[in-house]
Amino acid sequence: MTKGDETLRPRDKLRLSKEFARVYDEGTVFRTKRLALTVLEEDGLPRKAGFVAGRKAGGAVERARAKRLLRESYRRLKKYVKSQGIHLVFAAKVPGCELTYEIVKSDMEKLLRDAGLISS
Fold this sequence. Notes:
The chain is an alpha+beta fold. The protein is built from three helices and four strands, in the order αβββαβα. The chain has a four-stranded mixed beta sheet with strand order 1-2-4-3, with helices on both faces. A hairpin with a 3-residue loop joins β1 (about 30) and β2. α2 (about 60-75) packs across α3. It starts with 16 loop residues before the first helix and ends in a 6-residue tail after the last helix. The mean pLDDT is about 90.
């Protein structure tokens, strides 16, 4: 494994609002108590992920922390995720102060397994 396997480059992230809207409109939702995952599977899509934390996830500082934790957990798990044909949106449902890296990583693994994107 090289260092490049664990980087999260701009091309690996959903950026445009129309990309997020398409995932929300056409995707399938998986939930835990703290996180939600929306998955859009389609042949020909590059693997991309987006990270969101709405107002229910607290103030600006707490939302920023939640998104940082989501990005870091995904960055470490992405080598196990299907590499083509998916767009993912991870959403924090609780304030960032209630989240730790370990909690986010375990919830994210569960969501990805439930979605059939990684094996047990």
